[in-house]
Specification:
The chain is built from four helices and nine strands; from the N terminus they run αββαββββαβββα. It has 212 residues and is an alpha+beta fold. It has two domains: 68 residues, GMP Synthetase, Chain A, domain 3, CATH 3.30.300; 118 residues, 2-Layer Sandwich (Double Stranded RNA Binding Domain). Helix 3 crosses helix 4. The termini are far apart.
């Protein structure tokens, strides 16, 4: 088996940014320099699947690296994300109720603009936890839509700056009925409202995973 070539994440990011329609790339590695996540901002001319395939081919050709496509998240600059399957969950709205230091978040999703699914999450109202509650409420709505086939848990919600744009990232875990656990990451460009971006990033994280 051919050994992996020496590589540098920063140089790799620059190579990825030369791929057609890629605007910006960020690679996250672990202590052993193994790729954990790749976050991509792209134009909308080419599909995320095409871009991911190009990244896989590039890493294989340049560094002899076999990349798991699930580690790559692609957000397009118009904020639209393609959903697998013939039907897709769409974000309809979000509401917040406050009672002292407690927050109650409600997220509504729809399926093909017809059936509605509502998710509710409650907890302490802090900046960090509030964003996590939004992701949790979104995932509860998703679980209703997929009839509890999987259990999703939000792990982390955070902001990063990419090419002068703020991007919301959501990291979550999913447990399937087979007890197989997996980590997922999604992102969305902030377009005025951070709350909406959390919902869109959460849906982006699971868009390769669910079929409704």
């Amino acid at each position: 088996m051919e050994e992996r070539k020496n590589w540098n994440p920063e140089d790799c990011q620059k190579l990825i940014e030369q791929i057609e329609d890629v605007v910006s790339a960020r690679i996250i590695i672990d202590e052993n320099e193994v790729i954990e996540e790749i976050h991509i901002l792209s134009q909308e001319k080419r599909s995320p699947k095409q871009i991911v395939r190009d990244i896989e081919s590039l890493l294989q050709a340049e560094y002899n690296l076999d990349l798991d496509y699930k580690k790559v998240s692609v957000v397009q600059l118009n904020g639209k994300h393609k959903q697998l399957g013939s039907r897709r969950l769409m974000f309809k709205g979000i509401s917040l109720n406050m009672e002292g230091t407690k927050a109650r978040v409600k997220v509504n999703l729809s399926l093909n603009s017809s059936t509605d699914f509502e998710g509710v999450a409650e907890g302490a109202y802090t900046k960090t936890n509030y964003m996590r509650l939004i992701s949790e409420a979104t995932l509860k709505a998703v679980q209703k839509a997929i009839k509890e086939r999987m259990i999703f848990t939000p792990e982390e919600v955070f902001l990063l700056n990419f090419n002068r744009q703020q991007v919301m990232f959501v990291a979550l875990s999913v447990l399937e009925r087979s007890y197989k656990e997996e980590s997922l990451v999604g992102c969305a460009v902030i377009q005025g409202d951070e709350k909406d971006a959390v919902v869109r990033a959460t849906l982006n994280a699971i868009n390769r995973k669910i079929f409704v």
